[in-house]
Every structure is written in structure tokens, then in C-alpha cells.
């Protein structure tokens, strides 16, 4: 994986005019700056760590969440009720989630 990240970073460093609007572009911009605060090794390590942690943590956490919710149907019921109440109180169902709505999710926040 380190070789893949290293090759990707070096390719992007050699072609800084091609923009992808992603994290690698941000790292390349920093590495090409007058006084970079990171080096290539750090950039490669950061990319590898982010890729690894996003893969390793997401799947097990989702599995555990589904297991706990299926083991506790009363929790799932309360979560549904609380979130559906927000939707029922909206004038426009397509509106975005508001800070006020988020703060009203007292049970959901405890479960998260």
C-alpha cells in the first residue's frame, strides 16, 4: 500500500497542473509551497493512515451498530419515533437538517 501511495504522490507532484480536488492535491500544494510544513514521507504516511483507518473502522462499526439495533428493538423504535417526529414537524420535507433539529435529538445523540 505504501508503494501505491508513494507512486500516486510522485505522479501528482510531477503533474501539479492536473487538479483532482482531493486530499492528494492539498498535500501536493503544501509540498510545492515555499516553506512546506510536511515532507513526502509524512504525506505518504498520512494518506496510508487515512485509507487504512477509513476502511478498518467503517465496516466493523456498521456491523456492530446493526447488531446492537437488532438486539434492542425498543432502541430502534425510539430512534425511529424521534427522527420521524422531526420530519412530521417540518413545513418543507425537502429542507436541510437544522441545528435546532439536531439539538432536539436527545435520544439519538445518546445512542450515537
Please describe what this structure looks like:
The protein has 112 residues and is an all-alpha fold. It starts with a helix and ends with a helix. The mean pLDDT is 88. Helix 1 crosses helix 2 and helix 1 crosses helix 3. It is built from six helices and no strands. It has helices at 2-14, 23-32, 40-71, 73-89, 99-104, 106-111.
What would you say about this model in short?
This protein is an all-alpha fold. Helix content is 75%, strand content 0%. The chain folds into 2 domains: 1-68, no CATH class; 72-112, no CATH class.
**Rg from alpha-carbon coordinates:** 22 Å
H/E topology pattern: HHHHHH
Instruction: State the major sheet.
Output: none
Helix content: over 70%
Q: How many domains?
A: 2
Q: Give me the number of helical elements.
A: 6
Average pLDDT for all residues = 88
Report the principal-axis shape: elongated
Strand content: under 5%
Counting DSSP E segments of at least 2 residues, the number of strands comes to 0
Ranges with pLDDT <50 over ≥5 residues? none
Structural class: mainly alpha
Query: How far apart are the termini?
Result: 32 Å
Amino acid at each position: 500500500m505504501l508503494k501505491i501511495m508513494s507512486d500516486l504522490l510522485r505522479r501528482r507532484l510531477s503533474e501539479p497542473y492536473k487538479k483532482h480536488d482531493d486530499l492528494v492535491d492539498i498535500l501536493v500544494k503544501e509540498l510545492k509551497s515555499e516553506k512546506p510544513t510536511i515532507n513526502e514521507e509524512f504525506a505518504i504516511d498520512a494518506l496510508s493512515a487515512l485509507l487504512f483507518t477509513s476502511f478498518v473502522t467503517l465496516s466493523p462499526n456498521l456491523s456492530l451498530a446493526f447488531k446492537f439495533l437488532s438486539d434492542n428493538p425498543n432502541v430502534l423504535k425510539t430512534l425511529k419515533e424521534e427522527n420521524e417526529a422531526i420530519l412530521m414537524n417540518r413545513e418543507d420535507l425537502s429542507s436541510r437538517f437544522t441545528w435546532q433539529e439536531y439539538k432536539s435529538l436527545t435520544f439519538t445523540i445518546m445512542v450515537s
